[in-house]
Write a structure and sequence with these properties.
CATH class of the largest domain: Alpha Beta
CATH superfamily of the largest domain: Response regulator
Radius of gyration: 19 Å
Number of strands: 5
Number of helices: 10
Pfam families: GerE, Response_reg
Shape: elongated
Order of helices and strands: EHEHEHEHEHHHHHH
Number of domains: 2
Protein name: FixJ family two-component response regulator
Strand content: 5-15%
CATH topology of the largest domain: Rossmann fold
Distance between the termini: 27 Å
Helix content: 55-70%
GO biological process, one term: regulation of DNA-templated transcription
InterPro entries: CheY-like_superfamily, Sig_transdc_resp-reg_C-effctor, Sig_transdc_resp-reg_receiver, Tscrpt_reg_LuxR_C, WH-like_DNA-bd_sf
Organism: Stenotrophomonas rhizophila
């Protein structure tokens, strides 16, 4: 199942804009106009992260973060705000937020933060499930994907992998993409960490 990015903001225009930005990059997104609406649809078993506004009527972003902290296993959170103070930012980061962005949010900056959030969530889920979780994901790979994986985590470029394995560049890109999806990550750095847990030898390709 693909990671889901949950966006929580009481401003419909901001909510829609952030959603369009992330969907344009192929991400699955849910939109919630309040923390209560988000809580009603949130499933802790679904991978991903949360992008939420700091100041909202009723329960604000920090209160929502605290609520999850009290429950344990809080989702990975990225805060956005147009008028954040240093104290609020520091509080959010101390409680585990991966980033604190200022409105209006630059699309590239938002996407980078979300990628880090998805990777952090994937690694946290693997850590909770232990080595077995990483091994299970590795076992979901096809024989060819298992051949490609060591090349990817050793830093080889797609064209180098294609030449090494005698396959087309397009096929290499497809295998690489499917490996990332099956491990639930968006960066090679996160893939390396999970491959290590699964005892994949970077020189084993």
């Amino acid at each position: 199942m693909s990671p889901v990015v949950h966006i929580v903001d009481d401003d419909p225009r901001v909510l829609a804009a952030l959603g369009r930005c992330l969907r344009a990059d192929g991400l699955e997104v849910t939109l919630s106009g309040s923390p209560d609406e988000f809580l009603a649809r949130y499933d802790a078993d679904t991978a991903g992260c949360v992008v939420l506004d700091l100041h909202m009527p009723g329960m604000d972003g920090l209160a929502l973060q605290q609520l999850f902290g009290e429950r344990g296993q809080a989702p990975v959170m990225i805060f956005v705000s147009g008028d954040a103070d240093v104290s609020s930012c520091a509080q959010a980061m101390r409680a585990g937020a991966v980033d604190f962005l200022t409105k209006p949010v630059d699309a590239a900056v938002l996407l980078e933060a979300v990628m880090r959030g998805i990777d952090a969530d994937a690694c946290a889920r693997i850590r909770r499930s232990g080595e077995q979780g990483a091994v299970q994901r590795y076992q979901c790979l096809t024989p060819r994907e298992r051949q490609v994986l060591p090349h990817v985590i050793s830093g080889r470029l797609n064209k180098q992998i294609a030449a090494d394995l005698g396959i087309s560049l397009k096929t290499t890109k497809v295998h690489r993409s499917r490996i990332m999806v099956k491990f639930g990550v968006r960066s090679v750095a996160a893939l390396v960490r999970l491959a290590e847990l699964a005892h994949v030898d970077p020189g084993g390709g």
